[in-house]
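Input/output pair, single chain:
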Amino acid sequence: MMWDSLGKMLLFFGILLAATGGLMLVGGRLFGLGRLPGDIFIQKGNFSFYFPLVTCIILSVLLTIVLNLIRR
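Output:
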């Protein structure tokens, strides 16, 4: 009985992970995620540093809203 619930949980998280990966691939092209004003990009010679600060904040707020709606 325990293996059934573990298998369902692993399958659910696998599908969730694949869907998240697909959204990340498509989201960068369609919604401009990763190129928002406020994202930090520093390039000097051979060194480049990129931190999507505003993108992380927006995704955090959206995921918080979605997960709160699912939880209720």
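The chain has two helices and two strands. Residues 34-72 form one domain.
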